[in-house]
Each structure stands twice: as C-alpha cells, then as structure tokens.
C-alpha cells in the first residue's frame, strides 16, 4: 500500500511538479512516525520492566550508557556520515544540553518542591529495584522531559550559532572550528560560579531561572541532580533518534545531505542550497547531542564539563567511523560495542587502554569503511539485489 | 529505496535485541577474569573478603590513582601477611575509571554487583566520588574516599566516609598558620580553576583568612594543562603580597615556584597536602622557606608512621605522597571496622566505620565525626633544601 | 610597563615553542592534508626522551646539582631528536601508510589511536613475569638542568634568562634550517612537489613514499627539539597522558592554522602570534579564559580569512 502511494507520487514527479511540492507537509511526520514510535515505546518499556531486572545492575548500567552513546553516535552520523562534514566538537553540545537540563531540573525542583529529591513516577525510578511504590508517572517526570527537550533546544541553538558562519568552511577547517567551540564550552562551563545548595533555598526561590544559569558549579561540576533518566527514557529517545535518522536518510532531505557529502559542487549545481542543508543537519544533530547530554547528567546525577572535552568528542567520532560513515545501524552497533569494549578489556588490566588503541588502529587498517560502510544492517541480507530506484 | 514500516521496526528492534545478548557475553567474561591485583596467597577465592578500589589508573590523572592504589595494596599485603581480617584473607579488586565519571559509575556498579565487594575505596577526585558515591549509597555498600576533600562528598549519605581533611578545615589551617604564627596579613592566591580540590581549597582559604582579619590582594588561577604561570605571577608581583597561597598539587607547584623565583617573587609560598611528594626536591632552592599543611610529619616517631615509610620505600622504591598515605589509611581503617563490625553486611560495616574513634593511622589519629568526615590534626611542614620537615601543629577551629 | 615587557618576552618565548611544534603539523598537512593528532604525543615523547637520556648521563635535578658542559645538552638534544625521528618513521610506516588510499577521517581516527597508544605506553609501570619495568611511569619528573641558570639582562624587574635565549635561539635556528631545507635542497624540492600533487611528483621520478616518510621524520625531530626546549624551560615534565601535552599540541596546531596551514613561515608567525595572544589575554583581560582566547582567535581568523594569515586561498578541484 505504501508502495502504491510512493509510486503515485513518483509518477506525479514526471508530470512536471517541482520537488518542493512533492514533499509532504512537515506536520505529516507526526502520524507517519506514530507506529514506529509506538514500537519504540514498547521496546523501551520491555527493556525497562523485563530486561533490566534480568540482567542486573551492572548490565543495565551498560545498557544505559550504550543507549546514550547510540544517541550521540547516530546524531553525529547525521553531520559526519550523511552530510560529510567533519565535526569534532560533539561533546560540547552534549555538555550544553546536560548542564541546561541539570540546572532546570535541579533549580526547578527547589522552586517547585523546595528540595532536590526525586518526584517522578515508576518509569523514572533509578533507585533500588522494587524500592518504589507509586504511580507510573509523577509530576517530576514532566519537569524531566521538559528539561531534556530544553537541553536539546539550547544545544540546537548553539549548533545554529556555530554552524551558520562556520559551515561555509570546508573539511578540516570546520573540524578545527568545532574543536575550538567544544573547548570554549568546556572552559566557560568550568569557570561558572558555585552551585546554590539546599541551604540557599530562599535565594534560589527569589532568583529568576535565567540568573541561576551561571551557577553551575565550576570545577567540581554540577552535582546533586535528582536522577530521572532510566532505561525507559533513554531507549525512548534512542527510538526517536533512530526513527528520525532512518527516515531522514531516505527522505529527499537525506538525499540532499548525501549529495553534499559526495560532491558539494555537484550538489550545488543541481540546486541544493548546501549551506542551508548543512546548517539544518548540524542543528538537528546538536539537538540530539544536547538530549543525550541531558539524559547523561540526569542519570549519573552529576555532570562535569572537564570530562566533556575533545577526548569525549573523539570517542563519539570513533563510533561513527567504526560503524561506517552514514550507516545508522552501523553507528548504533559501534556505540554498543565501544561501550562494552572497555569492560570486556578489563582483564588485561593496566594494558587496557593500550589494547583499546591498538584495536582501533587495526580496525581502521583492516576495515577502513567501518562495519557496514554507508549501508545498513538490513541491506546486508539483500546484497545481491540491485540498489533501489533512488 | 522503499521505506516500509517493517524495515523501520527492524531498525528499532535489531539493536534493541542485540543489546542483552552482548551484555550476557560481557557478563560471562567477567566472572572468569576479574582483574584482581591480589598476589596468589592460596585461599584467594573461597573464604576471601573482597574489597574494591576504583581510581584513575590510566589517563591524565593516573599519578593520583596509582599512588592511592599503591598505598591500598601495601595495606592489603600487610594485613594478609598478618592473617587477614577475622581469619579471612582480603582480596583487593582494582578497577580503572580513566578519570571519567561515567567509568567510575560503571566500575563501582561492577564491583558491587558482579564482584560482590563488601566495601569500596575511592576516589581521589571529589567529582568522581560524587558521581559514583550514589551507587554505593543505593546499594548499601560503604565507601571510604581516601582523598576527596570537597564537603559535599560525604553529604551523599550514610554509606560514604572519608579519611582526609575537608576543604574548609585545611583552608582554615593555612589561613590561621599564616595569620597567627607567621603574622602575615597580605595574601595572594594562585589556584587551579579546573580542579575541584584546588578551587575549593582556595575559596575556603580566602574565607578563613579574611575572617581572621587578613587581606587577600589578588586571586589568580590557571587550568589543567597550563604550564606557564608567568602571566599570573607577574600580576601577583604587581600587588606585592607577603605570601602566596597555592592550593595545588606538587605536579604544578615545582614549576610555579621556579617561575615565581625567576620573576623575582621572593615571598614565601604556602600550600596544602597536595604538595606532598619527594618531587619537591626538584624545585631546587625555589621552595626554600615555604610551608604547606600536611596530615602527618615523616619525622613523627610513632611506629605507624615509621613502619609505613619503611615498607612503602622498600616496596615501591620511593617515599609516599599524601595520596598513598591516605589510601593506606583508608584501607586500614576499613579493616579495623571489619574487625569490630557485627557482620560484613553493608549497614553493620557502615556503623562500625562511623564509630571509629582515635584510630591510629599514618596520617594522624582519625575519629569519624557525625558528618562521616575524619577529625584529625594538621601539621605544617617547612621546606628547606628540597626536604620538608615538621614545623608546627594546627588545631581545628574552636 | 614592566608587565608589558614581561608579557611580551614570555609570549614570544612560549610562542617560539608553539612555532616549532606547529612546523611539524604544517609539514605533514602540506603533504598529506591530514591533521596528525599524534604529533603532540611525539612532542611529549621528545621531552621524556630528553629526560631519560639526561639521566643516562648521570644527571639529576634538584638543589646543588651542577650543570654539565654544554656539549652534553647538545648530545641530549641530538639523541632525543634521533629517537623521535625513528618513532615518527615507525608511526608513519605502520599506522598511516596502509591507509594511504582510505578516507581522511579514517586516518584521523588512526592518528587518535596512535596518540592514545603513545600516551598510555609512556605511562606504563608495573610487573611483568616478576620483573619490575617502567617506560616513563605515571609520575611527573623533573628535568635536570642542562643550561646554567643565568640572568643575561635586567630591564626594570624583567629578567632575560639564558634559558629563554637558548629556547628562542634554537627555535629560530631550526626554523631557518627548515626553511633552507624546504626551499634550497633537492629533498625540499621533492617535498614541495609531493605536496603539490602526489601523482605528478611520482611521474617526475620522485619516490613519494620515501618523501612522506622523510617529512614525518623531520616533523617528529622538530617535535623532539620542541620537547627538549620545553623540558629546559619548564623543568617539570608531567606524565605522558596529561592534558598539558595535548593542549600544547592543540595550541600549536591552532598556530599552524592561524598562520596558514601548509605554510612554513605561517607556522612560525602563527606560533608567536598565539603565544602573544595567550599571554596578553591572561595578563590584561582575565586568567579565566586562557584557552578561550586562543580558540576564539582561531574561529575569528578562520571566518575572516579561512586559509590563515599567510595561506593561499585554494580553489577546491572538482
């Protein structure tokens, strides 16, 4: 059925319609994404309610970080993989999103509840398994979800600010600018004022939210954040991320991005406004990096900009390249592998990082195209067939 | 490309199903190969009591993690040679966290859930203790931080302890020593803005010094990775202070002192326990006549101190820094509590640790107070000719 | 006034170190168009090799230590440069060469891998089959003084020291030597040809592979020299995985980009420029944002003049 609709559309292209008119309106994304989102929610629920208790605390800990890394890797894939732009400042966006969400949840909790303890429901319970009796959702969850989205939006805004001027640059120069941006974010966050604490409740209540945004803890990092982000929330966002990425890749937008990656000049020649597309990809990618940062901060309960420097950006970049530039499933798999790898390598003890770096070098040499190249995992099963009509 | 809902579902499901499989693989792996640093003492697995240590063993902060681990290992070795605790050998499992909060959380979760340790030792950096502390609190496993000085670390909950000074105390020690004993009124400070230890100590010193009637003329800062301090020192020189408080680690102090002297800054430099290291001798005469606050004096005749110094030197071929001494003390305090505890159950053990009184540790007699911090005296060491020696004792504020 | 002159001298002294490291980035970038992220680790290796070699000569840091005759310093420098040259050669042969045809991002990741490898191998210390061993170890060490600590010149409260003069002198000498090598010798001509176009260079009978190796060796030797000079000036060497090395490397790289990457004079100019910006920023604005000044400058320069101060604007070939 979907195919006939597609066919009809394609036929109408030949009837001299412009591609702009062909594109469905933006809002139609909502009903079309509904079914997969529902599947994603169910999967996240299964992971949270059934898989997590089965694999225990350590396993679910890795599951959580793997999920956050998937969001980071796939979001960077949109910029590095689809659009072919070097960005090595991804951790900077993550830090921005993380600090924003942390500040909103932390100071917001004080303003609303008078303390920074947990006010969520069962799906947000990060404490001891079975230690929570209460409704599925609590009022704190609203604050949490809002903060996560706000973190994404702040990161996206920063992405727009950085992207607009610098995406005119090519190749390595863009890489250097994003690197510089990431370092600036780190230094500025480390230079913020001391965090207000529960003894300063009155001060917190009387200070407007925006003014609290420079009291982010400085060198110690932002701490004492009530933890909300569970396997459920993380994998709900993973689902959203994957849906967006996969849909994007196969949309006309995505093809425009891929065309920029293949050849900017040719893309420009066929009418792709390359700066605009690059900036949009960058903003989208930053948004999800910010969300991942928010999930990270609200999972650990603290966030430290000192750990979100260029080394972290490199880790994300490694996932993208290892997965295969432009492959969503590749980035996903690479994120999982690279989250688990340091744990698997524990047995080599102090040689762990040496083995890790050697594996990285060897992987790049023996399989430069990454795990899947530009293809997806499911393409591997029908390799023999000629590639689709796009 | 045809985009069907089925493919999409696959996109979502494929990774989701891969995950548990992978983690089961990881799960099997670690049962067989815990990276234990326990020397083969025979009765390793069966009756041994497992304790965990997480720290930055690799990466940019390895200096501190490795020192702490050396101290802990020495304590474990001694204890096992002396018959262990309650007749059982101690097995130490050390996990590296690469100096990252996320890794610290994973390492501590693994120690508790997979290895089943009864207590956790770590971390040096307050930010990582704060990241991983909640895991210990939630799982009901006591954690003793050897050297996280930020007051907020033990505020996590009743499972979190420490054996080092807290910043407000050490800041007071530096301020009161300068103001009351050296009779100096005009200070400048130079601290590491990106390290919580340094920034926290600086703040507390400034508070205390001003409260005592002193005057802080200028506060300058540097960041991790800075190596040239001449700009800050030049700015300090312009103000002409009577001394400079430098609450950093010895890894930077040697360079700061040398550069200060080259710039003609001759006033004494005063620091905290981060200075302790035999590396100070490398500053040549640049640190002559400078002071720092410390936990204990190496000339102290107490047997704990002299024994520890001798054993550490023979084991590792160098004198211990603060991190090593505090690691050693944290482990020994834990063993002492284990002996007294009703059982090795987390809450019993935490109660035993909390009731520690006048425990004879290398870094002074430790009493755990109601905030689960260590009450102990501070000593002031004076540096001369690259060696440091006992100068004064400072009491806690009344 | 004193502060101004002090800041100026410090900025230039540190800037000349940046310039030396930047030369290594620029040489490699000019030929392979790739950011050698492992370069800062070769620089760290240079400093640590200098330290190790100096201890072989029986020298030690600390009070009362005498400075050895000048030729010992020179020997340490030469040996460190040879050591790093060999390491640079091996890195290129083993890690980068197999990726000659691969996308640049792969080479970048490999460079990160090499960087991690060097950092962590350098910090190794422990037991292996019952034997205690150590590469450089995880502790910072103090470099023995190889240059007498003497004040050459007084100006108000500003002192010009022999160490600074040696750092500046050696840096300038090496820069002139590189300039001569690249523009006045056959090897330099070959290097320029390769950087222009690999295929045409090969057609002219140039052994491209050998030239690339030579470039890496040269860059690594310069990094070693910078490491040696760094150790002379700052005495205390942090362990190899410490951020100090990477940050210095990054700033040097920024210097190379600001000056116009691929351009040798640009690297020198950029190095001094970055050193001055950094020191004036800290002295006159705020000590809070040291690295922010450097990276902001980078972003501004790239936006206004994407190819750097001395770089030529290139048109990307279709």
Any descriptors?
heterotrimer, B: 398 residues, alpha/beta, Rossmann fold, seven-stranded mixed beta sheet, five-stranded parallel beta sheet, 19% strand, globular, C: 318 residues, mainly alpha, ABC transporter involved in vitamin B12 uptake, BtuC, two-stranded antiparallel ribbon, 11 helices, 6 strands
Task: Give the SSE map.
The complex is a heterotrimer of chains A (390), B (398) and C (318).
Chain A: H1 2-14, H2 19-22, H3 29-82, H4 90-113, H5 139-166, H6 171-190, H7 201-206, H8 209-212, H9 231-249, H10 252-262, H11 264-269, H12 274-300, H13 310-323, H14 328-344, H15 352-366
Helix pairs in contact in A: 3-9, 3-12, 3-13, 3-14, 4-5, 4-6, 4-12, 5-12, 9-12, 10-12, 13-14
Chain B: H1 5-32, E1 49-55, H2 62-81, E2 90-96, H3 101-113, E3 119-121, H4 126-139, E4 143-145, E5 160-162, H5 167-181, E6 186-192, H6 196-211, E7 215-222, H7 230-239, E8 243-246, H8 250-262, E9 269-271, E10 290-294, H9 303-316, H10 322-340, H11 346-354, E11 359-361, E12 364-368, E13 374-375, E14 378-384, E15 387-394
Parallel strand pairs in B: 1-2, 1-3, 3-4, 4-5, 6-7, 6-8, 8-9, 9-10
Antiparallel strand pairs in B: 10-14, 11-12, 12-13, 14-15
Helix pairs in contact in B: 2-10, 3-4, 5-6, 10-11
Chain C: H1 2-32, H2 39-56, H3 70-96, H4 104-122, E1 125-128, E2 131-134, E3 141-142, E4 151-155, E5 158-161, H5 162-184, H6 186-196, H7 198-203, H8 208-234, E6 236-237, H9 243-259, H10 264-285, H11 290-304
Helix pairs in contact in C: 1-5, 1-8, 1-9, 1-10, 2-3, 2-4, 2-8, 2-9, 3-8, 5-6, 5-8, 6-8, 9-10, 9-11, 10-11
- CATH topology of the largest domain in chain B, by name, is Rossmann fold
How many helical stretches of chain B? 11
**Given the C-alpha coordinates, what overall shape of chain A results?**
globular
Structural class of chain A: mainly alpha
Q: What structural category do the secondary elements of chain B indicate?
A: alpha/beta
Question: Measured on Cα atoms, how large is the radius of gyration of chain A?
Answer: 22 Å
Q: Spell out the helices and strands of chain A N to C.
A: HHHHHHHHHHHHHHH
User: What is the β-strand count of chain B?
Assistant: 15
Query: What share of the residues of chain B does DSSP label as strand, in percent?
Result: 15-25%
Provide the β-strand percentage band of chain A.
under 5%
Tell me the domain tally of chain B: 2
Number of helices of chain A: 15
Task: Please give the order of strands in the largest beta sheet of chain B.
Answer: 7-6-8-9-10-14-15
Q: Regions of chain A with pLDDT < 50 over 5+ consecutive residues? A: 7-17
> What overall form of chain B do the CA principal axes indicate?
globular
Low-confidence stretches of chain B: 24-45
Order of helices and strands of chain B: HEHEHEHEEHEHEHEHEEHHHEEEEE
* Main sheet makeup of chain B: 7 strands, mixed
């Amino acid at each position: 059925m979907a195919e006939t609709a597609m066919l009809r559309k394609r036929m109408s292209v030949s009837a001299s319609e412009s591609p702009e008119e062909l594109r469905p309106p933006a809002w139609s994304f909502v009903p079309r994404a509904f079914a997969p989102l529902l599947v994603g929610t169910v999967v996240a629920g299964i992971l949270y309610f059934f898989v997590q208790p089965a694999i225990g605390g350590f396993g679910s800990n890795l599951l959580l970080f793997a999920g956050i890394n998937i969001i980071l890797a796939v979001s960077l894939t949109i910029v590095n993989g689809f659009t072919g732009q070097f960005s090595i400042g991804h951790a900077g966006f993550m830090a921005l999103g993380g600090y924003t969400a942390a500040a909103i949840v932390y100071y917001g909790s004080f303003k609303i509840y008078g303390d920074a303890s947990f006010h969520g429901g069962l799906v947000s319970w990060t404490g001891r398994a079975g230690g929570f009796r209460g409704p599925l959702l609590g009022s704190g969850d609203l604050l949490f979800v809002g903060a996560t989205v706000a973190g994404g939006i702040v990161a996206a805004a920063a992405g727009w600010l950085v992207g607009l001027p610098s995406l005119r640059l090519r190749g390595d120069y863009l890489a250097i600018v994003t690197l510089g941006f990431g370092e600036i974010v780190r230094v500025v966050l480390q230079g913020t004022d001391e965090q207000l604490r529960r003894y300063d409740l009155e001060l917190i209540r009387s200070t407007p939210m925006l003014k609290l945004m420079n009291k982010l803890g400085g060198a110690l990092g932002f701490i004492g954040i009530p933890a909300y982000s569970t396997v459920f929330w993380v994998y709900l966002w993973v689902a959203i991320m994957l849906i967006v990425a996969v849909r994007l890749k196969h949309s006309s937008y995505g093809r425009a991005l891929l065309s920029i990656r293949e050849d900017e000049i040719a893309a420009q020649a066929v009418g792709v406004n390359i700066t605009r597309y690059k900036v949009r990809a960058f903003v989208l990618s930053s948004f999800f990096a910010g969300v991942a940062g928010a999930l990270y901060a609200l999972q650990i309960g603290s966030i430290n900009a000192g750990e979100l420097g260029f080394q972290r950006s490199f880790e994300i970049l490694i996932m993208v390249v290892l997965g295969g530039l432009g492959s969503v499933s590749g980035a996903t798999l690479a994120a999982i592998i690279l989250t688990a790898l340091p744990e698997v390598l524990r047995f080599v003890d102090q040689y762990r990082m040496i083995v890790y770096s050697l594996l990285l070098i060897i992987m790049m040499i023996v399989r430069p195209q990454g795990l899947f190249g530009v293809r997806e995992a499911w393409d591997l099963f029908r390799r023999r067939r000629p590639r689709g009509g796009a | 490309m045809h985009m069907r809902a089925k493919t999409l579902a696959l996109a979502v499901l494929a990774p989701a199903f891969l995950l548990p499989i992978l983690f089961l693989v990881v799960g099997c792996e670690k049962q067989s190969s815990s990276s234990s640093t326990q020397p083969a003492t025979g009765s390793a697995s069966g009756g041994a009591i497992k304790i965990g240590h997480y720290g930055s063993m690799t990466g940019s902060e390895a200096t501190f993690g490795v020192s702490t681990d050396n101290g802990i290992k020495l304590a474990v070795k001694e204890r096992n040679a002396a018959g262990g605790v309650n007749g059982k050998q101690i097995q130490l499992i050390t996990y590296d966290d690469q100096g990252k909060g996320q890794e610290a959380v994973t390492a501590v979760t693994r120690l508790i859930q997979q290895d089943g340790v009864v207590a956790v030792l770590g971390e040096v950096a307050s930010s990582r203790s704060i990241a991983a502390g909640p895991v210990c609190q939630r799982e009901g496993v006591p954690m003793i931080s050897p050297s996280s000085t930020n007051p907020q670390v033990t505020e996590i909950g009743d499972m979190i302890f420490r054996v080092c000074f807290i910043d407000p105390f050490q800041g007071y020690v530096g301020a009161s020593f300068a103001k009351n004993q050296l009779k100096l009124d005009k200070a400048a400070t130079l601290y590491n803005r990106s390290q919580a230890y340094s920034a926290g100590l600086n703040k507390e010193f400034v508070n205390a010094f001003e409260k005592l009637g002193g005057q802080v003329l200028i506060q300058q800062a540097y960041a991790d990775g800075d190596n040239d301090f001449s700009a800050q020192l030049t700015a300090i020189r312009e103000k002409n202070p009577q001394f400079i408080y430098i609450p950093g680690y010895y890894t930077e102090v040697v360079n700061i002192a040398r550069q200060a002297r080259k710039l003609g800054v001759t006033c004494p430099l005063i620091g905290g326990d981060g200075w302790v290291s035999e590396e100070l001798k490398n500053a040549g005469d640049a640190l002559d006549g400078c002071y720092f606050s410390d936990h204990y004096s190496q000339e102290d005749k107490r047997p704990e101190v002299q024994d520890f110094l001798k054993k550490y030197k023979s084991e590792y071929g160098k004198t211990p820094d603060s991190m090593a001494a505090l690691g050693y003390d944290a482990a020994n305090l834990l063993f002492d509590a284990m002996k007294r505890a009703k059982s090795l159950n987390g809450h019993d053990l935490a109660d035993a640790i909390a009731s520690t009184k006048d425990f004879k540790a290398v870094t002074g007699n430790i009493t755990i107070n109601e905030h689960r911090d260590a009450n102990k005296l501070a000593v002031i060491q004076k540096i001369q000719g690259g060696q440091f020696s006992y100068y004064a004792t400072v009491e806690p504020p009344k | 006034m004193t502060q101004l002159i002090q800041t100026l001298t410090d900025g230039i002294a540190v800037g000349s170190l940046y310039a030396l490291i930047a030369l290594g980035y620029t040489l490699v970038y000019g030929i392979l168009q790739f950011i050698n992220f492992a370069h800062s680790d070769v620089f760290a290796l240079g400093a640590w090799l200098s330290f190790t070699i100096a201890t072989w000569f029986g020298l030690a840091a600390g009070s009362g230590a005498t400075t050895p005759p000048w030729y010992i310093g020179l020997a340490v420098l030469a040996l460190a440069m040879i050591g790093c040259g060999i390491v640079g050669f091996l890195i290129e042969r083993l890690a980068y060469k197999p990726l000659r045809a691969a996308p640049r991002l792969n080479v970048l990741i490999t460079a990160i891998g090499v960087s991690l490898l060097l950092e962590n191998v350098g910090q190794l210390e422990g037991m292996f089959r019952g034997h205690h061993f150590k590469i450089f170890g995880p502790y910072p060490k103090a470099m023995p003084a190889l240059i007498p600590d003497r004040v050459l010149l007084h100006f108000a409260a500003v002192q010009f020291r022999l160490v600074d003069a040696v750092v500046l002198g050696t840096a300038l000498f090496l820069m002139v030597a590189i300039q001569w090598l690249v523009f006045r010798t056959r090897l330099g001509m070959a290097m320029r040809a390769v950087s222009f176009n690999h295929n045409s260079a090969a057609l002219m009978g140039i052994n491209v592979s050998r030239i690339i190796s030579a470039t890496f060796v040269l860059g690594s030797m310069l990094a070693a020299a910078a490491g040696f000079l760094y150790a002379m000036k700052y005495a205390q060497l942090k362990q190899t995985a410490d951020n100090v090395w990477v940050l210095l490397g990054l700033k040097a790289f920024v210097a190379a980009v600001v000056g116009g990457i691929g351009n040798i004079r640009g690297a020198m100019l950029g190095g001094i420029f970055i050193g001055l910006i950094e020191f004036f920023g800290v002295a006159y604005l705020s000590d809070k944002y040291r690295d922010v000044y450097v990276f902001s400058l980078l972003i501004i320069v790239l936006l206004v003049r994407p190819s750097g101060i001395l770089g030529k604007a290139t048109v990307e070939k279709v």
